[in-house]
Predict the 3D structure of the following.
Amino acid sequence: MVTVMIYTAFGLILFVAFALLALTQFPHRRATKTPQLLPGAALKARLLAGLLLVGVLIMAIWREGGGFGFLLWGSLLSLSACAVSLILGWWPHLLALLARLMLSLNSRHTTVRLDVKG
């Protein structure tokens, strides 16, 4: 039972990491109806996502050993990435809360405006 809970936690952490990576891109932020991140905030979100991905890999190898830990990480990685793409395709509003929380990574709480001249 404990093992299932740990694997579920690994999967949820990987899901959040892939959601962070996806929500740094403009089309996905537009789908969630949130403003675009500043470049520094996008970099912070990508670094956090990378740390989460590597952290789960280290925890899986530490818990299950080199062979099965890496296999577990790769499998959960694939499932989590598919889950994020499914949610972004069908129900992007489910990730709107995370997208709004990512706005706190902006050094200034301003939105990026695109001015069209001509």
Remarks:
- Residues 2-105 form one domain.
- The CA atoms of residues 37 and 103 lie 7 Å apart.
